[in-house]
């Protein structure tokens, strides 16, 4: 009897409706609130992407390529991606291959999505960048020794994957 009364008290505290439509899964209000809070937080972070992209573009041709770097004083490709997302409050690994396997793969990129590259036939990704829109990416390029903005077509001999973290 005590267990039944406790169960009723818990259900009442969670505001679970007595009847639930078959078309929607039953979720406690607490779970719905957590999902709503998470979605609002993601929307807030996404709204910051354009201003962070502008700041990142400022560093193009100013920040040198530094292997294993991840600051404005020098970064490698995955370090630049890591720096960008850190400014948005998201911690990423410092590896192009690891960045390729996080988030969600998408076929059409949005501004701010991660772009990773692998040699054709390979499953390991060797390079990472941030999508700027209009077919352009910003990346720390070892060949040029600096941060550059380039068209995606410069990488047409590679496999290209778009990854959405937010």
Structure, explained:
The chain has 166 residues and is α+β, with helices and mostly antiparallel strands. It has a domain at 50-164: endopeptidase domain like (from Nostoc punctiforme) (endopeptidase fold (from Nostoc punctiforme), Alpha-Beta Complex), CATH 3.90.1720. It is 36% helix and 25% strand. The strands form two sheets. It has a six-stranded antiparallel sheet with strand order 3-8-4-5-6-7. A two-stranded antiparallel ribbon has the order 1-2. β5 and β6 (136-141) form a beta hairpin.
Which terms summarize this structure?
about 170 residues, alpha+beta, endopeptidase fold (from Nostoc punctiforme), two-stranded antiparallel sheet, globular, disordered N terminus
Structure summarized in a few sentences:
The chain is α+β, with helices and mostly antiparallel strands.
Present the secondary structure layout.
Elements: H1 2-14, H2 29-58, E1 70-71, E2 74-75, H3 77-87, H4 96-100, E3 104-106, E4 114-119, E5 125-133, E6 136-141, E7 146-151, E8 158-164
Antiparallel strand pairs: 1-2, 3-8, 4-5, 4-8, 5-6, 6-7
- Sheet with the most strands? 6 strands, antiparallel
- How much beta, percentage-wise? 15-25%
Tally of helical segments: 4
Number of DSSP strand runs: 8
Gross geometry: globular
In the CATH classification, which architecture of the domain at 50-164 applies?
Answer: Alpha-Beta Complex
Helix content: 25-40%
* SSE pattern: HHEEHHEEEEEE
Alpha-carbon Rg, integer: 22 Å
Question: Per CATH, what is the topology of the domain at 50-164?
Answer: endopeptidase fold (from Nostoc punctiforme)
